[in-house]
Automatic annotation (TrEMBL):
<dbReference type="Pfam" id="PF03029">
    <property type="entry name" value="ATP_bind_1"/>
</dbReference>
<keyword id="KW-0547">Nucleotide-binding</keyword>
<keyword id="KW-0342">GTP-binding</keyword>
<keyword id="KW-0378">Hydrolase</keyword>
<comment type="similarity">
    <text>Belongs to the GPN-loop GTPase family.</text>
</comment>
<dbReference type="InterPro" id="IPR027417">
    <property type="entry name" value="P-loop_NTPase"/>
</dbReference>
<dbReference type="InterPro" id="IPR004130">
    <property type="entry name" value="Gpn"/>
</dbReference>
<dbReference type="InterPro" id="IPR052705">
    <property type="entry name" value="Gliding_Motility_GTPase"/>
</dbReference>
<protein>
    <submittedName>
        <fullName>ATP/GTP-binding protein</fullName>
    </submittedName>
</protein>
């Protein structure tokens, strides 16, 4: 979840690197979000969609999509001096879910991207993080032409636990994506602190 390092050359100490997952349904914008916010060239494991996958990949609503993540996306963003986030984008199709357990190890929290046109596609990710008690925020990717829904409506539709943040975003926009990540770090920090206090109380 957290790694620390010191750099004697410039006097910095205890720099934090936090692991964050970016999850959600097929074609919701996970690769786009990681690429938009990453300050390094993102690592991508995308492959062209094949005819063989047409029977298992539901492309309704994302007909323009030609590639899919088959392992993970990886990027890095510095939130402030001494605090960096390592972003791991998960594959969206259920046949790749076996990778999630590996990717989730040591994660501070997760962003669940949602598309209101296919809201049911993010239920597996919500269930996954709820059952493993990994803090997460739901980020509604506001696609052009999609009907706009407020955060309370999305929260009710997904039957989220009370207090789970829902934010609206544009996965293509760096500042918008950064705000989502900041909201997650703040929320996850409160959740982990509360659990620590409960354990010692």
């Amino acid at each position: 979840m957290v790694s620390e390092h010191s750099d004697a050359a410039d006097g910095e100490s205890a720099a934090l690197a936090l692991k964050i997952l970016v999850a959600g349904g097929f074609g919701v914008g996970k690769t786009t979000l990681v690429g938009a916010v990453s300050e390094i060239r993102p690592l991508r494991t995308e492959e062209l969609l094949s005819e063989a996958g047409q029977s298992v990949d539901d492309t309704d609503g994302v007909d323009h999509k030609t590639t899919t993540t088959v392992a993970m996306d990886f990027g890095r963003i510095t939130i402030r001096s001494g605090l960096s986030l390592y972003l791991f984008g998960t594959p969206g199709q259920d046949r790749f879910w076996f990778l999630w357990d590996e990717l989730a190890q040591g994660a501070l929290g997760a962003v669940v991207l949602a598309d209101t046109r296919r809201l049911e596609d993010c239920f597996p990710a919500v269930d996954y993080f709820e059952h493993r008690r990994i803090p997460f925020v739901v980020a509604v990717n506001c696609f052009a032409g999609a009907r706009q829904h407020g955060a309370p409506d999305v929260s009710r539709a997904l039957d989220l636990d009370g207090g789970t943040p829902v934010v609206l975003c544009d996965a293509r926009d760096r500042d918008s994506g950064k705000e989502v990540l900041i909201r997650l770090v703040e929320y996850a920090g409160r959740m982990h602190t509360a659990r620590l206090l409960d354990s010692v109380g």
